[in-house]
Amino acid sequence: MATRTIRTNGDEILRKKSKVVDEINKRVLLLIKDMKETMYNSNGIGLAAPQVGILKRIVVIDIGEGPIALINPQIVEMSGSQLGSEGCLSIPGIQKNVDRPQKVKVKALSEAGEELVIEGEDLLARALCHEIDHLDGILFIDKAIEGEE
């Protein structure tokens, strides 16, 4: 495992759309391990592959309940609304309020290639939305509510 360099705002890779993972192989699994280590070493609660320079649809999240790795995640349901402060490892030192769904349901593949469904509320819902946005080249500052910091 290795800590990877986190790309920061202004790096054009953060604005590109990530590609679907066709095959879960050793390289993908190594990337996931490295992403987890990088997230923990940076004191983050989530990290998307584009943030370490890889345009693949992979995210890792840990809101304090253990790590979740999602391959090709898709939000299939969302409900409610929550306004809260967000930050991002790719935009250090900046926090802004973002309106996110209160609950989300996400379909993805596990590291073992099994289909899974995760239902997240509150912070987990926020983290899922934030990281999945990264896969489409969207940063939280794009959705920030001005004047509400």
Continuous helix count = 2
Number of strands: 7
CATH topology: Peptide Deformylase
The 3D shape can be described as globular
Q: Could you say which structural class the secondary elements and strand pairing correspond to?
A: alpha+beta
Beta-strand residue fraction: 25-35%
CATH superfamily: Peptide deformylase
The top-level CATH class is Alpha Beta
CATH architecture: Alpha-Beta Complex
Rg, Cα atoms, Å: 14 Å
The N- and C-terminal alpha carbons lie at a distance of 37 Å
Strand order of the largest sheet: 1-2-3-6-7
Summed up, the domain count is 1
SSE succession: HEEEEEEEH
- Portion of residues within helices: 10-25%
Largest beta sheet, briefly? Answer: 5 strands, antiparallel
Uncertain runs: none
What's the rounded overall pLDDT mean? 96
Describe the protein.
It is built from two helices and seven strands. The protein has one domain: Peptide Deformylase (Alpha-Beta Complex), CATH 3.90.45.10. It is α+β, with helices and mostly antiparallel strands.
Notable characteristics:
single chain; 149 residues; 5-stranded antiparallel beta sheet; two-stranded antiparallel ribbon; 19% helix; 34% strand; globular
Summarize the structure in short.
Helices cover 19% and strands 34% of the residues. It is built from 2 helices and 7 strands, in the order H-E-E-E-E-E-E-E-H. The chain has helices at 26-41, 122-134; strands at residues 46-48, 58-61, 68-79, 82-88, 91-100, 103-109, 115-121.
